[in-house]
Design brief:
Order of helices and strands: HHHHHHHHHHHHHHH
Strand content: under 5%
Structural class: mainly alpha
CATH architecture of the largest domain: Orthogonal Bundle
Number of domains: 2
Number of helices: 15
Radius of gyration: 20 Å
CATH class of the largest domain: Mainly Alpha
CATH topology of the largest domain: Tetracycline Repressor, domain 2
């Protein structure tokens, strides 16, 4: 912490002012949190048990707080590189609205609170998985993988993929194949999603010294890997129907969405190297977000319709 404080206050001359509530909310990475909460909720609802409304609400809240804690710890550690990138320079710490020590304390308190809340209200298996997820994102990914290997997103993507399993475990006290399939969808989706971003933000990543795939392996290799991962992501998206966990209707919707993902990835792979506007990569990045929400939304609707019909 002292190292980050020193870099930001002495080397950059940033003077920290008193933080406002909105600054602490920004530390939670609310857009990322919304995706985590949604996928965790789908895992919880999909579990084959009767849901207690109180446990459901508190479990979702605990997972949301845990996701926010991960974001705060990530911003604390990455403050030195965030100020070098246009899309992150306005975050609370590099912009001088929150001191690093405050962000660290905020993240640690929320981490402990979220794990204890989930353990006491739901069960300790779900709480343990939530604790591991926070540790994996804040320590394994942020502090180690992100700055050391171009496979950072591939391995680190597990942190963002655990929420459906946490939701399932909160409802059942165990893991199930369905929750593992939902984990795989997010895990496999992460590389094409973030590598698409890295293609049109590679100058910023290079300036910050982050070894993203385009900066290390080159654009051509990255585009091929995006397409390959998109193919297996598409297969994973359809897998719940193939395994009999979802209806034919879900299978049709998932197939259409997955074909769209593959199509956008194909356009990225065939992208003209002289296209510095990176329009296909930007299009894939935007569609990939819609894809993940679409897959999980379709699965949620399918589960609810099956319950009502049953």
């Amino acid at each position: 912490m002292a190292l980050v404080d020193d870099r930001l206050t002495h080397d950059t001359g940033i003077l920290f002012s008193e933080a406002m509530p909105g600054d602490y909310f920004a530390l939670l990475k609310p857009r990322v949190m919304s995706l985590v909460v949604f996928t965790a909720f789908v895992g919880l609802v999909a579990a084959p048990v009767s849901l207690n409304p109180f446990i459901t609400v508190i479990s979702v809240l605990a997972i949301a707080v845990g996701a926010g804690a991960s974001g705060a710890l990530n911003m604390w550690y990455d403050a030195d590189i965030d100020r070098l990138m246009g899309r992150t320079a306005s975050r609370p710490i590099p912009s001088g609205r929150v001191a690093p020590g405050q962000a660290l304390a905020f993240g640690l308190v929320l981490s402990a609170l979220s794990v204890m809340m989930l353990g006491l209200v739901a069960n300790w298996l779900a709480a343990s998985l939530l604790a591991f997820t926070i540790f994996f994102y804040a320590v394994v990914y942020t502090m180690w993988l992100k700055r050391s290997t171009p496979q950072n997103i591939v391995i680190g993507g597990a942190a963002g993929a655990f929420p459906p399993m946490i939701g399932w475990a909160a409802a059942t006290g165990a893991f199930g194949l369905e929750s593992i399939l939902l984990f795989l969808v997010i895990f496999l989706w992460t590389p094409p999603h973030f590598w698409a971003l890295a293609l049109f933000k590679q100058a910023e990543y290079g300036r910050a010294g982050i070894p993203m795939m385009p900066n290390v392996a080159g654009e051509a290799s990255t585009r091929r890997q995006i397409f390959a991962y998109s193919l297996v992501t598409a297969a994973a998206g359809v897998a719940p129907a193939a395994f009999g966990f979802a209806s034919v209707a879900y299978g049709i919707v998932a197939t259409v969405l997955s074909l769209g993902l593959v199509w956008y990835a194909w356009k990225v792979m065939r992208m003209d190297a002289s296209d510095r506007a990176m329009k296909p990569a930007k299009a894939l990045f935007g569609y990939s977000l819609l894809y993940l929400f679409g897959i999980f939304g379709a699965y949620l609707v399918d589960v609810v319709v099956a319950r009502i019909g049953g």
